[in-house]
Amino acid sequence: MAQLALLLIFGFSSSCNGYFVYLNRSGTISEIPSNIPTNATKIDLRNNIISSFGPRAFSNFTSLLMLEASENPLVSIDYTAFEDTKIDNLILAYTQLTQIPDLNAPSLRHLHMQGHPGITHVDFVHLTLLYSRLRLLNVSICSINYTRWPENTTEVTIKNFDLTRNDLNTLSNGAMNSWRRLSFLYLEETGLSTFGCSYINDTELIILKLSRNHLTEFPDLQCVGQTLEILGLARNLITAVAKEDFRDLVTLVSLDLKANRISRLDEPLTMDEHHFNAQIRQDKEMEHKKVSESCPLCSISREFIFHADTASHLSTKKLYLCKAWHRKNQDGK
Ligand SMILES: *[C@@H]1O[C@H](CO)[C@@H](O)[C@H](O)[C@H]1NC(C)=O
Ligand SMILES: *[C@@H]1O[C@H](CO)[C@@H](O)[C@H](O)[C@H]1NC(C)=O
Ligand SMILES: *[C@@H]1O[C@H](CO)[C@@H](O)[C@H](O)[C@H]1NC(C)=O
Ligand SMILES: *[C@@H]1O[C@H](CO)[C@@H](O)[C@H](O)[C@H]1NC(C)=O
Ligand SMILES: *[C@@H]1O[C@H](CO)[C@@H](O)[C@H](O)[C@H]1NC(C)=O
Ligand SMILES: *[C@@H]1O[C@H](CO)[C@@H](O)[C@H](O)[C@H]1NC(C)=O
Ligand SMILES: *[C@@H]1O[C@H](CO)[C@@H](O)[C@H](O)[C@H]1NC(C)=O
């Protein structure tokens, strides 16, 4: 009952496993409330009117793991604001910051900075040295048009990186080569006209999303052929797809090529060398059907969706690659 009363009066809620959460999204808070217990592990001040976090603003919260302060009109955060905390997850989406803040927060592993039209420059060399344990970085929906990249030099721990909707246009050679743990890379709508292994060599990409860019060729992704499972290339300017493009992508299970300018296909696009079986069907009816007719053992996860806008821009073709089916057939022989 005492906890319920606290919850009603102050917006506290606590759980029995050692976590203490403070939450107040009232839209009226302009500075950190003085009644937050110092044992708080999570502080949620989303949607308020805080404009800055000063020196050692959170230092009394020595158990603090997570701060959610999105949708505040923040313009500055002091370098020492999180000193002496255990901050692991910092969620600062849609504020008025114009730079990714420099913080003394060596334990930080998740940094969510999406939704900052004021952020135009990011020095990833500096950032990855400062936050040397970072695993997730989200800087989508910003206006980043100038970047500096580590270029093969330092070991970077980032696993999940979202740069969707920025104004990059190009990446420098070797940009993410040293990001050896990079598994999930989102680069949609960033103005890229080229992409390939010269930026991500030595990574372990599982998901790569490159939709809504200006790519004219199927990217060379041979360096991640042993790990890549999902590849999104929709809404680019790719004009041709060939067998060779897939040669090394042995773990791929999902490919989206819809709304490109493909006028040439190796038809049928069979990939026998790599235990794929491919069939192209032009009838619209097939669009929502599973591949069971041609490929009884394929599950939906083995279905490749392939919309090729032909020169006439009329017919939609679907390509189904049935890895499991073909492998089974081969093994059976
Ligand atoms: C949130 O903070 C405001 C301003 O301090 C306070 O008036 C309000 O009661 C708080 N709401 C909750 C649910 O704690
Ligand atoms: C944190 O402090 C509050 C209020 O002082 C107390 O009710 C709660 O039990 C404490 N929680 C932990 C995990 O120490
Ligand atoms: C931190 O705790 C000290 C001692 O209880 C107190 O004087 C100070 O005002 C607190 N600082 C903040 C930022 O709450
Ligand atoms: C990054 O933020 C955007 C916008 O909130 C969200 O849609 C996306 O899923 C986030 N990406 C990651 C990797 O968390
Ligand atoms: C980046 O965008 C800002 C704001 O639109 C502009 O002032 C600046 O010149 C641009 N910089 C580059 C390198 O394009
Ligand atoms: C990083 O590697 C790429 C090739 O992957 C190379 O083109 C570039 O020159 C290298 N950069 C540095 C600074 O060594
Ligand atoms: C990727 O790295 C390997 C060796 O680590 C090297 O042989 C190859 O040239 C590199 N490829 C690119 C495109 O940088």
From TrEMBL:
Q: Which UniProt keywords apply?
A: Leucine-rich repeat, Repeat, Signal
InterPro entries associated with the record = Leu-rich_rpt (IPR001611), LRR_dom_sf (IPR032675), SLRP (IPR050333)
Lineage top rank: taxon: Eukaryota
Span of the signal peptide: 1-18
Q: Pfam families from the xrefs? A: LRR_8
Q: What is the recorded name of this protein?
A: Uncharacterized protein
